[in-house]
Amino acid sequence: MNPGLRLVFHLVAGTALGTMIFFTAIVAEQVFASLPQNSAGDVLANIFPPYYTLTTLLCIVALITCWLLTQNRHGWWVWLARWSLLATTVFMAVGWLVLLPIMNRLRLAIPSFTGPQTPAIMRFFMFHGLSMGLNLLSGLLLAFAIGIIAVISTRKGDLT
Questions:
Q1: Which of 3, 44, 133, 144 has its CA 20 to 30 A from that of 97?
Q2: Angular region, 74: left φ>0, alpha ψ -120 to 50, beta rest
């Protein structure tokens, strides 16, 4: 495998995975722990569009470099790495281009998240849960693909 291309793949994919972990596990939790719920929602509504943009673009680059790294290799492991990265990229793009606008529209229509559960609040949390689930699944798939490429790139003949 091309060592320069392999380095680019691992830097880009590792940055995407680190960004996913940092923003979802640390930033979002700290914002909600430090601010009132409505203010925290406003802050996150401004943070997550660049988050999704960055991670989607990084996943696209990781997918392209993975494809270039494995273009002469065949087999189940290579196939799994490629499809894992494709699914990760699609899930992040869906979160960015579909779910995020829906959640922002719903959030603006909800005066307060305290009080009775209105249909708008329930819809918001349904889309929010879907977004969180896709984000978690994306991180797992990305970590899986990184691991496969790391193993494939260090072995000659195995897993091809």
A1: 144
A2: beta
Cβ pair 146, 13 in contact under 8 A:
yes
Give the separation between CA 138 and CA 3, rounded to whole angstroms.
Answer: 26
Task: Please state the domain extents for the chain.
Answer: 3-154
* Complete DSSP assignment for the chain: --HHHHHHHHHHHHHHHHHHHIIIIIIHHHHHHHS-HHHHHHHHHHHHHHHHHHHHHHHHHHHHHHHHHTTT--SHHHHHHHHHHHHHHHHHHHIIIIIHHHHHHHHHH-S-SSSS--HHHHHHHHHHHHHHHHHHHHHHHHHHHHHHHHHHHH-SSTT-
Q: Are 103 and 128 in contact (CB under 8 A)?
A: yes
Does the global pTM surpass 0.85? yes
Q: What is the pLDDT of residues 4-25, one digit of tens each?
A: 999 999 999 999 999 999 998 9
| Among the listed residues 84, 104, 86, the one whose alpha carbon sits nearest the alpha carbon of residue 96 | 104
